[in-house]
Amino acid sequence: MEITIQEFKRCDLIKVKGRVDSSTAPDFSKALEKFTSNNRFNIVVDMRELEYMSSAGFRALLAAQRNCKRYNRGELVLASAPKRIKEALELAGFFELFKTFDDAVAAVGVF
């Protein structure tokens, strides 16, 4: 798994590449927590190059979303999710918890 971070004025873009499974999910969770601990609560997760995400990765997304939305501070949105990841999010019941966009430009533009 590779994580690339871009900071913008109004939000932060996290590009995830590879697989987020039980061994890499803690690193993914720490990357998300880094933003919320620095009072950055508008986060875009670009999943265009993501091959697989396990339930541990979904839990990391959910925990980050909770931290972002607490006290109406911000939001975590998903961009360019592959078809299989979208299906897994729908199956787990998480799809309605996140705003999703077809590309990262549209997702960043929402902030």
Question: What do these coordinates show?
Answer:
With 111 residues, this protein is α/β, with parallel strands linked by helices. The protein has a single domain, classed as 2-Layer Sandwich (Transcription Regulator spoIIAA), CATH 3.30.750. The chain is built from four helices and five strands. It has helices spanning 25-37, 55-69, 83-92, 104-109, and strands at residues 2-7, 12-20, 42-53, 75-79, 99-101. It has a five-stranded mixed sheet with strand order 1-2-3-4-5. Helix 1 runs parallel beside helix 2 (55-69). The longest helix is centred in the middle third of the chain and has 15 residues, at 55-69. The termini are far apart. The model has no long low-confidence stretch (mean pLDDT 93).
Helix-strand layout with pairing:
Elements (H helix, E strand, L loop, with lengths): L1 E6 L4 E9 L4 H13 L4 E12 L1 H15 L5 E5 L3 H10 L6 E3 L2 H6 L2
Parallel strand pairs: 2-3, 3-4, 4-5
Antiparallel strand pairs: 1-2
Helix pairs in contact: 1-2
In a few lines, what is going on in this structure?
With 111 residues, the chain is of the alpha/beta class. It is 40% helix and 32% strand.
Order of strands across the biggest sheet? 1-2-3-4-5
CATH topology: Transcription Regulator spoIIAA
What value does the average pLDDT take? 93
Overall form: globular
Q: What is the number of independent domains? A: 1
Name the CATH superfamily classification: STAS domain
Cα end-to-end separation: 27 Å
